[in-house]
Amino acid sequence: MDALAELDQRISDCRACPRLVDWREEVARVKRAAFADWTYWGRPVPGFGPPDARLLIIGLAPAAHGGNRTGRMFTGDRSGDVLYQALYDVGLASQPTAVSVDDGLELHGVRITSPVHCAPPENKPTPGERDACRPWLVEELRLLRPTLRAVVVLGAFGWQAALPAFAAAGWTVPRPRPVFGHGTRVRLDGADGVDGLDGIDLFGCFHVSQRNTFTGKLTPEMLRDVLRTAGEAAGLTVRGEAV
Length: 243
Ligand code: SF4
Hints:
The chain is an alpha/beta fold. 37% of the residues lie in helices and 11% in strands.
């Protein structure tokens, strides 16, 4: 088992946040009527994608009946439908849909993770839960460091949660801390003293939540544009023109 797979396994066993453990397991017991036949995952959802990813996408937390049901990031909910369709459109995913862990989906040079690995009530983790989960993100970033060249952060929560993790994993985060915005692009240099650590390009993107996509705050075109630009910055081959 490679180091990242081992990390994913350890994350899946975490029970550090009592409120989230209770919630994820209760949701898995009660279920939504439409998914009554499913055996819910009901555990922390680890990152998804290859261990040598050049581009990392950071969301917020798994959805109660999405990732918490299927056991894979953004899989089985409408946010994921939007994200994977866009990744497929720009050539970074093998298929446009994500319905279960055995649906055959593969990401090309991309990994997806979140700063909080358990589904929170109302999609709102507390600051304490965010901080409790941060060491997992730091460890994931350290393991991805040799190949990682760009990161897309979906939404302000992920942005604020991730900046300290980048610093802890060895990158230099500018002071004052860069502010989240859709289309924001920030260069994080490798910190002095960390051998072989290349800088990364960090991109802000509105979250693919239903609230944003239904209202048109985030359109498919806006999402594709950020993914293309970030994919090119990461040295990946993307379809279409980056803006
Ligand atoms: S949110 Fe993170 S730290 Fe808290 S129980 Fe889940 S995996 Fe563990």
